[in-house]
Write a structure and sequence with these properties.
This is Protein-ADP-ribose hydrolase. The protein is built from eight helices and eight strands; from the N terminus they run αααββββααββαβαβα. It is α/β, with parallel strands linked by helices.
Amino acid sequence: MTQAERRIFLINELLHEQPRSAGLKIPADEQEQRNLLRSLMNIRMPKPVDETFLEVQNAYLQEEIRRKGITGLSDLLPIQPGLYLWQGDITTLRCGVIVNAANSRMLGCFVPCHRCIDNAIHTFAGIQLRLACADLMKRQGHEEETGTAKITPAFNLPCDYIIHTVGPIIRGRLTNKDEKLLASCYHSCLELAEQNRLRSIALCCISTGEFRFPNEKAAQIAIQTVKGFKAQTHSEVKVIFNVFKDIDYKIYRELLGAD
């Protein structure tokens, strides 16, 4: 199959699962097709699917990521010993584990084509990720608590694993409890990476988007927590501070002494 044929196949299969979408015409425009496929993946509930679908989906997503361009840890230079700063799409990063800023349900973002990191990671990892997270939550028996984390395979992403953590939601002024919970997120992620003997971890800007944690304070907490963890545990894990927005890149560069 060509990439276009894979995309049409996947769209048709997902539309077939949605009775309310019966008769929906697939757009001719390539980008509109991509958006439709992503939307259908985003709204799909966690449930098994046949092997043929998975084979086509996996080939499609891996090619899409390849076309976006994959960045490996070896392509980066440390900004401090064992610490890296990289601005880019975390779904294209090849390392031991990437961190996903999840919500307490831990099932990914259900809003079609939403621009949050949770949506991007679940989209390009594939539908297996939502099912894996649902299995974790079923065994746990309750929603994930703020400040804690869970690890899953990365499926179609170039990294090996994904750590999902739930950051604090800021309502009103920032509190000391909010700061401690965010620090707990980073500490939980680092602990999981260490327990799984992972040699590198990419930390995203947890809670600074939809959850409204102030960017500069969040960066300070992230860096302090990482340095404190490495000093206390003598961990040799390489830490990549992954940012997407220009404002976060500027903040981290200043805090890490790159300017």
